[in-house]
Amino acid sequence: MEKIVLPEIENLHLIDTYVANGGYDTAKSALAKSSDEIIDIVKKSGLRGRGGAAFSTGLKWSFIPKGSGITKYLCINGDESEPGSFKDRQVFEFNPHQLIEGIVITCHAIHAKKAYLYIRGEYHKWIKLMQKALDDAYERGFVGEAMKAKYGTDFSCDIYIHKGAGAYICGEESSLMNSIEGKRGYPRVKPPFPAQVGLWGAPTIINNVETIANIPPIIKKGWEWFSAIGEQKHPGTLLFGVSGHVNKPGVYELPSGTLLTDIIYNYAGGVPGNKKIKCVIPGGSSMPPLRGDQLEGIKMDAESLRAAGSAIGTGGIMVMDEDTDLVKVLARLSKFYYHESCGQCTPCREGTGWMVKLLNRIVRGEGSKSDIDLLVSVASNIEGNTVCALGEAAAWPVRFMITRFRDEFEKQVSDHVKLEVKNKVHSMRATLNPLASVEN
Ligand SMILES: Cc1cc2nc3c(=O)[nH]c(=O)nc-3n(C[C@H](O)[C@H](O)[C@H](O)COP(=O)(O)O)c2cc1C
Ligand code: SF4
Question: What is the pLDDT averaged over residues 64-88?
Fold first, then answer.
């Protein structure tokens, strides 16, 4: 995968380079402002979370109880386990100090004295890089007790890196907190929301890595500067991770509202062999897929994608060309969500398994038309009936892939009709009980 160097300054990951370019000056000026002032700037900037739901960051921070008398925590979500999402690791690798500076400013804004940076366990390389950057920041007095002397304030905070253990569900904010507490990564029932009852029962803010990395430039250049970039309702630049059938896969930092086709054809170099695009998932694998013949004019921001029938998610753009077998793609994606379901609630635990079985049967050419409808029905029964949004993450690809590419699925089962003649006994057994004699 081609690497795009995000910062224009070479070696910005090194503390000397970062400091030489004004790094940590913004933290100093932010610490001289009141918490309310910082929250107000972030609110006015229009920054929205980059972890999937695009929720207003300033608004989220304002939910936390005011004052420094109560213990509060900040968690920074770098679990990044969604297939098609690989942008946070670019921040760890190329601009770790901007993230650290953002954490310090956020801790001050919400009066948190401890922050936990949760990094996906498989990211061995990036955990090491991040730890090195953090050690350097501590050594120079930009983090920890020494901050007081360095910045000339009463405030200090500590940052801990917490390594995940390979479970996608631990990226969900409440199971992330359970995981940090040393418990099983089960999502918690909400409400209460983390801003009221979070880590160890204390008010907690959880934000994505990219979200927090946006804080220093917003404070430095002002909310007016940030809110003028890209689309008004979802401003700023976004890190778009482009993968699949493109000539130049990689991460591209571009203003929100950039055309999806511009990203695919101009930045990511188009489709190998100039093939047509059959399908694009625009925000990581759990977001609704779009048809390749309906991409014209679609902008990459939360509102535009919603209007187009999908969602921005984490900005992970997965491109599939005309030769892609979407039934196989869906079977593979569904296997992922089935494997990652924590098993806490029945619709998700059972439904994800049923969907895998039905899809595998269709892939093997043993499915029937009623299996397609049954798949949509199972997906619809998961949605809205679970403790956390992994239910939707598993159900949406199934429901939308079938609704938007039904022809692909019908072709696969109409081929089955021919096979049925040859193999009458086997398929009769399968039709009588849709889930009988089917392997994962
Ligand atoms: C199953 C599941 C996995 C998630 N994984 C991540 C993740 O890896 N990184 C992330 O930032 N958010 C993830 N989220 C979203 C978080 O719960 C939370 O909304 C986010 O970290 C908030 O940060 P933001 O407001 O800055 O976007 C996940 C959500 C679900 C339901
Ligand atoms: S929806 Fe799935 S992953 Fe989420 S709590 Fe329920 S079983 Fe666990």
Answer: 95
SS (H, E, C) 335-404: HHHHHHCCCCCHHHHHHHHHHHHHHHHHHCCCCCHHHHHHHHHHHHHHCCCCCCCHHHHHHHHHHHHHHH
Q: What is the pLDDT of residue 438?
A: 37
DSSP state of 56: B
Separation of 79 CA from ligand 1 center, angstroms?
8
Angle made by CA atoms 310, 312, 318, in degrees to the nearest 5: 80
Average pLDDT for residues 319-327, to the nearest whole number? 98
Sign of the four-CA dihedral 315, 317, 318, 320: positive
Which tens digits make up the pLDDT trace of 407-429?
999 999 975 555 555 555 444 44
pLDDT tens track for 112-157: 999 999 999 999 999 999 999 999 999 999 999 999 999 999 999 9
Q: Output phi, psi for 313, to 5 deg.
A: 50, -125
Mean pLDDT within 235-249: 98
**Which amino acid type is present at position 287?**
M
DSSP 193: P
Q: Which residues line ligand 2 (CB under 6 A)?
A: 169, 187, 341-345, 348-349, 386-388, 390-391
Could you identify the atom of ligand 1 that is nearest to the CA of residue 174? 17
Residue ranges of domains in the chain, CATH in brackets: 15-227 (3.40.50.11540), 237-321 (3.10.20.600), 326-432 (1.20.1440.230)
Ligand 1, pocket-test mutation among 173, 180, 215, 333, most atoms within 8 A of CB: 173
Nearest CA to ligand 2 atom 4: 388
Task: Tell me the best of 169, 340, 396 to mutate to test the pocket of ligand 2, counting ligand atoms within 8 Å of each CB and taking the most.
Answer: 169
To test the pocket of ligand 1, the residue of 55, 56, 172, 174 to mutate (highest count of ligand atoms within 8 Å of its CB) is 172
What order of strands is seen across the sheet that includes strand 114-119?
Answer: 158-163, 114-119, 73-78, 204-208
428 class by beta-carbon count within 10 Å (0-12 exposed, 13-18 middle, 19+ buried): exposed
Would you tell me how many other CB atoms lie within 10 Å of the CB of residue 25? 13
Helix, strand, coil percent values for the chain (each to nearest 5): 50, 10, 40
Q: What is the mean pLDDT of the chain?
A: 93
By residue count, the chain amounts to 440
pLDDT at 358: 98
d(CA 83, CA 276): 23
What is the CA(391)–ligand 2 centre distance, in A? 6
